[in-house]
Design goal:
The complex is a heterodimer of chains A (619) and B (255).
Chain A (H helix, E strand, L loop, with lengths): L8 E3 L6 H4 L5 H11 L4 E7 L2 E6 H17 L7 E5 L4 H12 L3 E5 L5 H11 L3 E4 L2 H10 L8 E4 L13 E3 H14 L3 H7 L6 E6 L9 E5 H14 L7 E4 L6 H14 L2 E4 L6 H8 L3 E4 L1 H16 L3 H22 L6 H22 L6 E4 L6 H10 L3 E5 L9 E2 L12 E2 L4 E4 L4 E5 L6 E2 L3 H7 E2 L2 E10 L5 E6 L4 E2 L5 E2 L1 H9 L4 E7 L6 E7 L1 H10 L7 H6 L1 H15 L8 E6 L19 H7 L1 H5 L3
Parallel strand pairs in A: 2-12, 4-5, 4-6, 5-9, 6-7, 7-8, 11-12, 13-14, 14-15, 27-28
Antiparallel strand pairs in A: 1-18, 2-3, 9-10, 10-20, 15-16, 16-17, 18-19, 19-22, 21-22, 22-23, 24-25, 26-27
Helix pairs in contact in A: 2-3, 2-4, 3-4, 3-7, 5-6, 9-10, 13-14, 13-15
Chain B lengths: L1 E12 L2 E12 L3 E6 L5 H9 L6 E6 L2 E2 L5 H7 L1 E4 L11 H8 L6 H14 L1 H5 L10 H13 L5 E5 L7 H18 L2 E6 L2 H7 L2 E6 L2 E7 H6 L1 H6 L22
Classes of the chains: A alpha/beta (619), B alpha/beta (255).
């Protein structure tokens, strides 16, 4: 507390964004350069009928070009917004690049959004076109299109089930490409001309923030922002054309967008699309990505999978596991302290890796991973420690949509648990008087679409106000404590940062997520969402009868189980910070529900609202 | 009172876990139904209760006695009869011989005669054709034979596996009327597995929905009939989309 003034600003290394000086100074121009350079190399892969099929940069370029030209034929003008709503697939990327290439602005929508949410984004962005994955996404827009005067055309990627459907406003993606081909034949110079039109400071994409508070806001990201962030990141961890990534987090989120769409333009790595969300574990094993970015929830899932594998293993396997992770742990301790482990330990680690760890990593498909990141939400240090022990050195990355993804990151050999690393090259971090984290750099966004007031509040004197509070530690690492408005002030006047406690709770294999409550109250309580898979398994192993999910959450034995987990966490905190009572959420929340973000995080505000009575019952 | 108590059973086909931990109760005198798609594990549950399959884990109590892992004939003697799916009659035996096979474990001749008369009352057509080979009977009649055969063991609990399978709507109705009568008049408790969800929910008082080896809903049939997910996925009642027909299915929530 006394050392608060220690360091209030942290600067990343100097970096001149060279792309901006080159002729490829916008996203589409860089894209087109890559299409020419890397023609026959693989840009992405998609699984079809059980086989991974390669898609070359040439095909990527052609499809993007015809998508863009097709949209021009339909009346797209420079700066027009085009909405894309789809799970991750090649068409998403063709559309994205096609739109940008002809001067449009692409707007991703979460495929799990309800028709009303879709209406909000399409209306707010004033999108002229709506590119839908399939029948389901089509139905959403048809339901609300009367309220969308700007909408001109709906384009559908997958026409399955729609053969007999005709509507003057709708067309298939193939027909759009055909329009593009025709236009190209009539006017072969047009595409090149349009490609040159966007300028570095023009709006490139709109990202609607999923927002755990209020309605989504449209963050305006320029070409300069995107190119800058790509280079800043590539300075820290260089990507190669031999790298493989797996694309499964929603593309409308800034993190996955940079990973799947923009970063390949600088690093050239190959994007592999998962078949569906249920097949992530299989696809992980098949692709075995070398570069892997995931949200904490995914890292937690993998961890649970490994823990469960170990529970079911033989005694010998358990011993081997303990031995190997022990060595891994020791090695990682050395490295985390900035020194190389001694020779004998390195030899032992090789052995442990060969016999045990490699196989464990294979189970989750991380045996080739050389560069792993966690971001978009806080991750528990214990979890990171576990992975480092396996030899999977996950770094944390911190940032937000408003700064086009990352601002601080764990540099290689400078991972410090409990922090989110140091600033990227060309980025600056400052802590304001009230503890708010402020960011600066070429990657700070242009502002919120059609909301100058919010923009003024958010960017003051070039500093982005993140709404997060935190501090910079003695090594220059940033520590994020919480969202400014989430800080709980108890009736006793004590300030408490709920996310620290929540992250500890989430580390339990039996807890998926939790919301800590206590603002203006005498003590803290929590609503807990159990991990259904693991808790069901526990119930089975211990013969705890239950029928449905709801009855599982009501079983006294399960409540005892969670109580134990809560007690464990309570021991780590001061008295005022302990959870006095908790309740289990007795319905299985899905992404269709308002209480959860598409990335499966509980939304504090909605949860507090929906479970008001349950919360009151604890006080 | 719970006649049957199933607790945490897990049943495997080789390496595949078909029943992933199921617990439920069947009250005495009730008709209880288990709904579920193909491969959900409905039949496996019945087979596990009747002893045709043994659970890897868990317990089954029938009238306060543990029966899991018992050989099927002992389970039958205890008062549980299964009516298998697909009308498995003995083709080369006559109707009467088939029915007598149901009473195989019984010794009381007088009682057997009385019960034979009782099943002929429920299924008059069987009474008219006692000497005909079962294999020569129609599908509906064969279904009647298997139900009647199960009744001949004088069960306290009858496990019915898709009695409506492959029968005309009129026959289904007829057979269900008889099933309900048996439940009322003989006080036989019924555990009914069905694909024909509307029919099953109309006769039963309580139901479970089974998905991939787990129970996802457990409620009275009245509540189940009103549930959005049951309506869409089991009763085929869909809200229409703006376009008219809707082919995609929304996510199941089971709440």
């Amino acid at each position: 507390m006394e050392e608060e003034e220690k360091m209030e600003i942290a600067k990343g290394p100097q970096l001149q964004i060279s792309l901006l000086e080159s002729e490829a100074n916008t996203v589409p121009r860089l894209f087109w350069r890559r299409v020419k350079e890397w023609r026959d190399q693989t840009a992405m892969r998609k699984k079809e009928y059980g086989l991974w099929k390669d898609i070359s940069w040439r095909t990527y370029g052609e499809k993007a070009k015809y998508t863009g030209l097709g949209l021009i034929e339909l009346g797209l003008e420079k700066g027009d917004r085009v909405a894309i709503i789809s799970e991750n697939n090649p068409e998403w990327l063709y559309s994205d690049m096609g739109i940008l290439a002809v001067g449009g602005v692409s707007v991703g929508i979460y495929p799990t959004d309800s028709p009303n949410q879709v209406e909000y984004v399409v209306k707010h962005s004033g999108a002229k076109f709506y590119i839908a994955e399939d029948e389901e996404q089509l139905d959403k827009i048809l339901e609300v299109r009367e309220n969308l005067p700007n909408l001109k055309k709906i384009i559908i990627m997958d026409m399955e089930g729609l053969r007999h459907f005709s509507d003057p406003m709708c067309m298939s993606f193939d027909d759009l490409l055909a329009l593009g081909i025709q236009l190209d034949e009539r006017d072969p110079a047009l595409f090149k001309k349009r490609l040159q039109e966007p300028q570095p400071d023009d709006l490139a994409i709109l990202i609607y923030t999923s927002g755990t508070t209020g309605p989504p806001k449209g963050a305006m990201i320029s070409h300069r922002n995107i190119l800058s962030v790509m280079e800043m990141q590539n300075e820290v961890y260089q990507g190669y054309q031999t790298d493989e990534i797996l694309s499964f987090l929603p593309l409308c989120h800034i993190a996955q967008r940079t990973v799947s769409t923009f970063n390949p333009l600088i690093a050239g790595y190959r994007v592999n699309f998962v078949e569906e969300l249920d097949t992530i574990p299989e696809n992980m094993r098949e692709v075995s990505p070398t570069v892997f970015f995931a949200v904490p929830r995914i890292w937690e899932k993998f961890y649970s999978a490994l823990v469960l594998t170990m529970i079911d293993s033989t005694r010998l396997e358990k011993l081997a596991y303990k031995w190997a992770t022990g060595i891994g742990q020791k090695c990682s301790d050395y490295r985390l302290n900035g020194s190389e482990p001694p020779f004998h330990l390195r030899v032992l680690f090789k052995l442990a890796d060969w016999i045990v760890l490699r196989n464990l990593k294979k189970v989750i498909g991380l045996d080739r991973a050389r560069y792993c990141l966690s971001g978009a939400a806080p991750i528990s240090p214990e979890l990171l420690k576990f992975y480092h022990g396996l030899g999977v050195d996950i770094g944390e990355v911190y940032g937000q949509t408003e700064n086009c993804g990352p601002t601080s990151i764990h540099y290689e050999n400078d991972v410090k648990f409990g922090t989110v690393g140091t600033p990227l090259p060309a980025a600056q971090i400052r802590i304001a008087e009230d503890g708010e984290i402020l960011l600066k750099g070429p990657h700070i966004f242009m502002g919120y679409f059609n909301d100058p007031e919010k923009t003024r509040e958010t960017i003051v004197d070039g500093w982005l106000h993140t709404g997060d509070v935190g501090r910079i530690d003695e090594d220059g690492h940033l520590i994020v404590t919480d969202r400014k408005k989430d800080i709980i002030i108890t009736a006793g006047g004590k300030n408490i940062t709920p996310s620290e406690i929540e992250n500890q709770l989430k580390f339990s294999p039996y807890i998926n997520d939790a919301v800590v409550i206590g603002d203006g109250r005498k003590y803290l309580t929590a609503l807990i969402m159990i991990d259904d898979e693991n808790v069901m398994k526990h119930a089975q192993d211990n013969r705890i009868p239950f029928t449905t999910y709801a009855s599982l959450t009501k079983a006294p034995e399960i409540n005892k189980l969670i109580e134990k987990e809560v007690d464990k966490v309570n021991k780590k905190f001061a008295r005022v910070e302990t959870i006095k009572k908790f309740r289990l959420i007795d319905i299985q929340l899905t992404t269709d529900d308002d209480e959860i973000t598409p990335t499966m995080k509980l939304k504090r505000k909605f949860v507090n609202e929906k479970f008001k009575e349950v919360i009151e019952s604890m006080y | 009172m719970s006649l049957l108590k199933v607790r945490n059973i897990e049943t495997y086909y080789g390496p595949i876990m078909a029943i992933k931990g199921i617990s439920f109760d069947v009250q005495e005198g009730a008709i209880v139904t288990i709904l579920g798609a193909n491969g959900a594990g409905k039949t496996t549950i019945l087979k596990t209760i009747s002893g045709v399959m043994d659970p890897e884990k868990g317990t089954i109590e029938f009238m306060d006695q543990r029966i899991e892992g018992m050989p099927p004939d002992r389970v039958v003697r205890m008062g549980i009869s299964q009516v298998p799916e697909g009308r498995e009659v003995f083709h080369d035996l006559t109707v009467k011989e088939n029915l007598m096979m149901g009473a195989y474990v019984r010794k009381d001749r007088a009682g057997i005669q009385k019960d034979l008369q009782m099943v002929y009352d429920y299924f008059p057509i069987l009474g008219e054709r006692t000497a005909q080979y079962a294999g020569d009977m129609s599908g509906g009649e064969q279904q009647m034979i298997v139900i009647a055969r199960a009744l001949m063991a004088r069960p306290k609990l009858m496990l019915l596996d898709e009695p409506s399978l492959g029968l005309s709507p009129r026959l289904v109705k007829e057979i269900y009327e008889i099933i309900v009568r048996i439940n009322k008049e003989q006080k036989t408790t019924l555990l009914l597995v069905e694909q024909n969800a509307p029919m099953a929910l109309s006769v039963a008082s309580h139901g479970f929905v089974l998905e991939l080896g787990r129970i996802v809903m457990d409620d009275t049939c009245e509540e189940l009939l009103a549930n959005e997910d049951v309506k869409e996925f089991y009763l085929g009642i869909k809200e229409e989309s703006v376009r008219g027909s809707r082919r995609w299915k929304r996510k199941k929530k089971w709440r």
